[in-house]
Amino acid sequence: MTRSPRSQLPNPPAAESDEFLIFAREEIEDRKRFRWALVVAAFVHVGLFLVTLPELAAEIREPEPQKVFVVTPVRFRLPPPEPQRDIPPQRAQRIPVPDPTPDDPEPLVTEPQIEMTLDAIDTGIIGIPEAPPPFELSGPIRVRGNVRAPVKIFAPPPVYTEHARRARVNGLVIVEAVIDQTGSVTNVNVLKGLPLGLDRAAVDAIREWTFEPATLNGKPVSVLYNLTVNFQLQ
Length: 234
Description:
Layout: H1 5-8, H2 17-60, E1 141-142, E2 147-148, E3 151-154, H3 162-166, E4 171-179, E5 185-192, H4 198-206, E6 210-212, E7 214-216, E8 219-221, E9 223-231
Parallel strand pairs: 1-9
Antiparallel strand pairs: 2-7, 3-6, 4-5, 4-9, 7-8
């Protein structure tokens, strides 16, 4: 035997009986509405599931295989080469020449023999050329290649000037000179000099120097040669 909702409610105080009954009734109605809402929601979900089930089944189906198109390339064959024809070589045809004298025998043709002797050559017309004159140098040359440099034999020292000695001037004097075929020094030209008369003293000393001459192929030749004089105070 079930009890009514009112029998389940506690006995409220006398002052609050009306408000308690109103609150209890609202709570019971809320529970009923909640139950009906659950039932309706369940029916709605079941209906939606039944409606969307065929669509899901269709989507789950296996996809149709895609069509694959195979393209077969066309290969063209080259035409066979034409066979080469053998062209026979043309033979020279001899054209017979009529003999004007058929009754006479044919003469025998012999090759002429040419004999040359030394007597047949005129030595007066064809002569043996004379050898060219020996090459001679017209001037002094530089020491290079096959030219052997001159060798100093006698070289007196230069005179140190008094003014240069007092000023204590030191250094080199470089000159260019011609050493002829006898080994003597000529044509002295100063390339680098020193002050206070030292370059003049170097030139005077170099002109007194004597050399063994330079040679080309064993013969003495005149050469242009650079000479150096060193001035140093002791």
